[in-house]
Design a protein that fits this description.
The chain has helices spanning about 10-15, 30-35, 50-55, 70-75, 85-100, 105-120, 165-170, 210-215, 225-230, 235-245; strands spanning about 1-5, 20-25, 40, 60-65, 80, 130-135, 145-150, 155-160, 195-200, 220-225. The protein has about 250 residues and is of the alpha/beta class. It has 2 domains: about 1-85, Nitrogenase molybdenum iron protein domain (Rossmann fold, 3-Layer(aba) Sandwich); about 130-245, Rossmann fold. The strands form 2 sheets. It has a 5-stranded parallel β-sheet with strand order 3-2-1-4-5. A 5-stranded mixed β-sheet has the order 6-10-9-7-8. β2 (about 20-25), α2 (about 30-35) and β3 (about 40) form a beta-alpha-beta unit. The chain is globular.
Length: about 250
């Protein structure tokens, strides 16, 4: 089956599972050696249907959190739209994709996702932050009121418990700020969170490249690998599996 994937997380996952991906977004950068010769047809929010048609796909793969509704409404070929908003929905969608593509590997990863779901919640340790990349300022205490995960600047934007990243953080034992249920990506005033520990994601905003600006804020926090927390396919699954079930 020839697939055009408009979801970076799924592109990597399908390629590693042996599914034939013939088109991708410009944000589909993993696995590097496997995506090189796959044509780009747009981004996660825009697409050239002419380029898609040239590839003669059997299916376009979308996700409700990644792609806008009009992409599905205007899709000229059959499409499949997943909806990954938590670790639980990841497990269900891996089963769905495994059945659709008749892929033993996808089904195996669905079992791994179930193991992650059923594992005890981890104990969060500010000295051993999962996905740690670099300190903005080292923690001065063992406990904080909560953890705030930043994904954007100007305005400062965080994530709620109702997001995939939120479900990962909670499974890892982080205490999150509670926002209204309809605010998945709240805009905040960073000065309001002096008693919180701040996690700055390496993407989509390039916080690691702005580390000196962050240090000038005099906040306690760290840069973490955004791909590990947000790429909800095999990349995040392996991150969770390795964190919850470390090898001796």
């Amino acid at each position: 089956m020839r697939v055009v994937s408009m979801v970076p997380s799924w592109t990597e996952t399908l390629l590693r599972a042996g599914v034939e991906v013939v088109g991708r977004t410009r944000f589909c950068i993993h696995p590097p050696k496997m995506i090189t010769n796959i044509p780009i047809v747009g981004g996660t929010k825009d697409v050239s249907w002419e380029l898609v048609a040239d590839l003669k796909p059997d299916l376009v793969l979308l996700d409700e959190e990644e792609n806008p509704l009009d992409m599905a409404e205007n899709c000229p070929v059959p499409y499949l739209a997943t909806h990954v908003s938590s670790l639980e929905t990841l497990q269900k969608e891996l089963v769905r994709l495994g059945e659709h593509f008749e892929s033993p590997l996808l089904m195996e990863w669905a079992v791994d996702a179930l193991d992650v779901l059923e594992a005890p919640t981890a104990a969060w340790d500010f000295q051993k932050i999962p996905g740690f990349m670099e300190w903005v300022k080292t923690p001065s205490q063992k406990e904080y009121e909560n953890v705030v995960y930043l994904i954007w600047k100007k305005p400062w934007m965080t994530v709620s418990q109702q997001t995939y990243i939120g479900s990962v953080l909670q499974k890892l034992g982080a205490k999150m700020v509670e926002f209204p249920i309809d605010e998945k990506y709240p805009v905040i005033d960073i000065e309001d969170y002096e008693k919180s520990f701040l996690l700055f994601s390496s993407e989509p905003y390039p916080f690691q490249k702005k580390i000196n600006d962050l240090k000038a804020l005099n906040v306690e926090g760290a840069i973490v690998n955004g791909e590990s927390y947000s790429w909800f396919g095999i990349r995040s699954l392996e991150f969770m599996r390795d964190t919850l079930f470390p090898k001796s």
